[in-house]
Amino acid sequence: MSDKSMMFELWTECNNLCKFCYLGQTNRKTPDDLKIHNLKEVSEIIKKHFETETEQYKAIGLIGGEFFQGQMDNPEVNSLFFQLCEQIFQLIEEDKVRDFWCYCTLTIGDQKDLYKLVELFDKRITDKEKHKFWILVSYDTYGRFYVPGRKENWEKHMLNLQKYPFTKFNITSILSEDFCEKVLSGEHNLKEFKEKYKTTFFFKQPTKTFDDNANKDMAERLPRWFLKRATYIKFLKKLKEDDIEMFNEILNIEQRADDLMTSLSGYEVAHRDKVTWEESGGTINPKCGHVINYQCYADSDACCLCDYFKVKGDA
Length: 315
Known about the structure:
Layout (H helix, E strand, L loop, with lengths): L4 E5 L22 H21 L6 E5 L11 H19 L5 E5 L8 H13 L8 E6 L11 H11 L6 E8 L2 H9 L4 H8 L1 E6 L7 H10 L7 H14 L1 H4 L11 E3 L7 E5 L4 E2 L24 H9 L3
Parallel strand pairs: 1-2, 1-7, 2-3, 3-4, 4-5, 5-6
Antiparallel strand pairs: 7-8, 8-9
């Protein structure tokens, strides 16, 4: 079994409507017939791959959009989703895959289908020392929990799900100016947060677009979104001193899927590039060789990945 991971985006429908995210903004509703088509197609891709390919994967993941906030109310969609998960469980039982990743937001509703999925995994998978169910969620200090009650719902489910000992958690947080400032001030204590929710982290930079007007609009709507370079470097130094393990998780491409297949691309494979730290085919910054996604500062065209390596001591 290789160390690679395979991720499938099933659809882009999401009703969380984070102020910084494109999901749900232009595609509020994915038609049920398209969801059905995508679920069947992903199932067939997985089947063909594991029947014909010699290279296997350590993990298979499913990402939206969102699954558990009303997106699977259609009985056929719901049935096909759980059939797909059973197919993945079968691969785990056959030791062809080690872990199952599932992305969700936890912000709305009772998440009954998520609990159903966790309990199915618990009943099906016997070697829980070897195989894990990963719940991958996000937590942002800015632009995510602006609707009353959603943060509290997130917290409730994160704590409730800890009763399943085989379940692991990873939280993605975007390193906005607001996030880094709150960590530096002590308002958002990452060590306490990590212990409370028994989680690992993936920290991601706030990516700009190629449209300067869109970036300007984002900065006006969310003035504490894009990072200032000095804030980020102070944040890096503090995190390195406070928790080296967490520091090593910043921007860590190893925690992202090697191969990502999306419904928008017709399920063509998009490979992660471990050198440029991003999807292959991205525009390269000629000054450093990283993709330009890491030119994310509000006040500088420097590369935040290069700054990370400098603070780490690898530069």
